[in-house]
Amino acid sequence: MKHFVKSREFTLFIMILVFGILVSILSPAFLTGNNLSNILNNSIPNIILGCGMTMVIITGGIEIAVGAEMVVCSFVVGTIAKSSSGNLLLVFLAALAAGMLLGMINGSLIAILNVPPIIATLGTLNIYRGGLLYATSGKWIMSLPSWLTGLTRDRFLGLPVSVYLVTLVVLLTTGILKYTKFGRSIYAVGGNEEAAFRVGIHKKKTLFGVYVYAGVMCGIAGLVNAARVGNVQPNGSVNLEMTIVAAVVMGGTSILGGSGTAIGTVLGVIMMTLIDNVLILLYVPTYWQKFALGAILIITITMNVIQELYLKKKQMPIDVDEELEGLEVKTL
Amino acid sequence: MKKSNTILLVALLAGLGIYFSIASKYFLSLGNLLSITEHMAEFGIMSMGMMLTILVSGIDLTVSSVCGLTSIVIISVMKAGLPMPAAILTGLCAALLMGSFTGLFVAKLGVPPMLLTLAMSMLFTGISYVICEGNALSGFPEAYYFLGQGEVLGIPAQTWLFTAIVVLMFVLLRFTPWGLKIYAVGNNPKAAQYSGTAVTKVVMSAYIISGLLAGVAGVVMSSRVASARLDLGSSYQTNCIAAAVLGGTSISGGEGSPVGTFLGVTILSMLSNGLNHVGVSSFIQQLIIGVTLVTVVIINSNLLPTFSRTKTAN
Known about the structure:
The complex is a heterodimer. By secondary structure, chain A is an all-alpha fold. Chain A has helices at residues 2-6, 8-26, 33-58, 66-82, 88-112, 117-136, 146-153, 161-179, 181-191, 193-198, 203-229, 240-250, 262-281, 286-315, 320-331; strands at 155-156, 159-160. Helix content of chain B is 73%, strand content 3%. Chain B has helices at residues 3-23, 30-55, 63-79, 84-108, 113-132, 146-149, 157-175, 177-187, 189-194, 199-225, 237-246, 258-278, 282-303, and strands spanning 137-138, 151-152, 155-156, 227-228.
């Protein structure tokens, strides 16, 4: 219990509650069923993307092509949904396959061809986005069929179907991270690559798997997002990666790799969506919203790093390098 | 810079040049070649800064936002009544300040540069939004257009400026203690520190110069298009990294040269200009840039042997 109360997730949860109470006093529009379900609906694709991103960041990598990948998958979903033979199972499988393929490209570049994650995903970001814009000439796919949009509208036991889907994804991610060999090796690779190698963890396989998983998440998010918006915009979701990274970091995943949880990411995404929502409800001009988001990001990332470094200092009082430093001071 | 890489780049450049001259009759004219150098100048100046930050094992994703914000600051203070030279100076000071701010977080606090500069670019773009409310601002005095549209001895003014910056950067990196320190820090920060280099200061200087150069690029660009916009440099950001990496700058730092980056910039500019002449859509160009970036890094990190300094395990 004590451990739970001290955890980062719990702190964030309390923050969200306090924030929510403050805002509902300031704005009567906040605590309405409509607004809350809006927040939930807007969070869902980001939570799914966040699950993939959490794994990537735990390995110490980064994936900045998520926005582009999601849109490509949405496009695949939209194209199939508009054709005569489309059905929900088919688009779901197609979204998974498309996401997996894109993830495999990233994974091969990073794990097999040793391209640094930032460069690899920056490259694929341009490739996916450029390719999609060329293939579609930038045209939107409009008015998706109702069996698809029903995914976020139709209710089952009072909640939209997509809520069950996202719960499943979060549980799956948590399960993989906590209880499988693959999951544990993700933490190992991110925590201490050298040590992971010494205990026999296959770094390349782990990295490949992580980027494929992130790709699959883009597929599912692409499906849900297409259903939520009701159309597909080839030039949409630009800069989405930043929001996702920020949410993941806010949720307690270490930017330096080695730690983080899916639950934290869920809370991080909700917090980010909440901030967005509140800025609108409080009539903050759009121009200030970007500024606020940037500032929040910088503060979150910096706090995360400072906290990490502080913890490291506390955990490892004996460091060879520091002893060397001490020696040097004496001799000087 | 590795010799094999230089030869590869020059060969690539020659090959592209020959191909485009055959494929398009307009490519090989003095006017077109000079317009390539104009294009090169804008994104080349930014690339030099980007290269510096990559040399110290970092990356600067703020360049495009600094570029836009600088132009907006200049026109705003100009409208507030400041004379042109003072306004330009104010803009450059703002760019310097932005670079210092980024450098402070990266060098002093040790925040991973990739993420931090992405967040910073959001902040700077946000500030631009607040100032200009998303509009393109125009109304520069006539004299302001010289840098982006004027000519000296028949050659575009910004080409002169770019050449000067490349030469200056080459001299600074090659022949000054500061240049040596940049490479030392990029190669092995710990060793550099133990041999008496102020790592923090050196890293910070790289980001400050990168910010300043992005500001200079902003001045040139706003002068060419005769308006200040917050998204002025946004199309160049990926190209800057691609140019630096294409020119042999190692993404893990400590290796690379202004000459290589210059070649990278030339190749990318020629590619974009030539593809336009051949009639390839801009979407495909975006794709080609992505492919080029990834391919070059694959070649650099897998196929070319690294004779130079080995890096430590951590």
